[in-house]
Design brief:
globular, mainly beta, six-stranded mixed beta sheet, single chain, binds copper (II) ion
Length: 494
Amino acid sequence: MTMDRRKFLHLGAGGALGAAAPRGVFAQMSAQPEKPAPPPQGKADHTIRIAKGLVELAADHIVSTKLYNGQFPGPLLRLKEGQQVLVDIHNDTDTPEQLHWHGQTVPVDVDGAAEEGTPYIPAHGMRRISFIPGPSGLRFYHTHLTPGADLDNGQYSGQVGTVYIEPKREAGRYDREVFLVLKEFQPTLSRGGDMASDFLANPAPIKSLEEAGEGAMRASMASGKPHGYEVGYNLFSINGRMLGHGEPVRVKEGERVLFHIVNGSATEIRSLALPGHRFEVVALDGNPVPKPKEVPVLWLGTAERISAIVEMKMPGVWVMGDLADDDRTRGMGIVVEYAGKSGKPKWVKPNPHRWDYTIFGKQGAASTPDEIFEMTFAKNNAALNGFNEWTINGVAFSMDRMATMFRLKQGRRYRLKMRNASDDVHPVHLHRHSFELTRIAGKATSGIMKDVVMLGGYQEVEVDFVADNPGKTLFHCHQQLHMDFGFMALFDYA
Ligand SMILES: [Cu+2]
């Protein structure tokens, strides 16, 4: 109904495009990023304002940062699959912004990445965009800049909001939905202190990658260089409140609660456990998994999402929190309180558990790709004013050159064979497409669709995607410090 009215208004507005445009003009236009259709007239379905504001993480921890609509997280946008939406984005700050619709198959003009050619939302200006939401499920929106050493900007700020795209048919049985955004504040730089990647399944390193990475590191150390900078944080939160400072998640015994969890971190990998309970993972990055499975602990790389059902069958007052004691005690958790129960929230450290994407997948191999792209990721320790430089096949991405690295032909299926010659975990992300996990650390799988996947230290991961959304397409590590210092590549359609 709404959609038809807009179409009418757009066509009625005249202009060269209007008169001759057939039915379904928006769908066709959105496949042609070079000639985006002018957005429809009328009242926007959603308005987002980017401005500096305050987040009260706790009474004595109030931070000032850039936010969406003055709140953290930004407003939850509930969209409907296939139903066009009109969004006004106002930028009330002094610097241009990008708003990226993470995990959606939108055109370049909408996607929110300058590297692909999305126009900036000008300082003290606005952009009106319209798009058809999809795929359904848990998505999110966030800023998409390369702040480099400026820890007030980019994803270090509070520009994160959840998108839930309602499917045409709802799957799974649950009583209630709870949305959680995991986010750190007050970033600082330090040297070294990298996170271990031994939470991933099959952690045995691939010898050739390890030798290359360790050799480069030894040579750098021998030349007198210290470790490159890493980012750490002082404050941690779920839904913008430190553990113990917000409202608890209130549950009843016997309820099935569907948690939609977004890792909104700029740089961190997060874990989450709820003592005495298990998570039945039903979707990864918003896409239903072939085999829902129960796990005691969730692990989410930067920008990953998990939808998981918890059956509430252990009455009490519990801490649902990160396994890292330092992070949890500084805020990374939320209290889960059963009706009629009171007392101090209880945390119990879970037994060791390794995160394995493949348990949610099908056993058989995925379809054969038409073409394979090999990618090796490497680190040049402290090569850029003390920051690590990151390369893909020896090339660090440059915002000045914006060179295309991989060419795509529409309709073909591509396999990305990714090899990590560093000891860091990389949550790699492909814009405007979903990919299928086909091999994780030596184990074949199929049927799991995602848009971010964690690649372990000195490990290999393979994913397939179909080139079905023309226009420039950005691939990058979602760790802000990695993407800003080279870990990006552009795909383009022939
Ligand atoms: Cu990375």
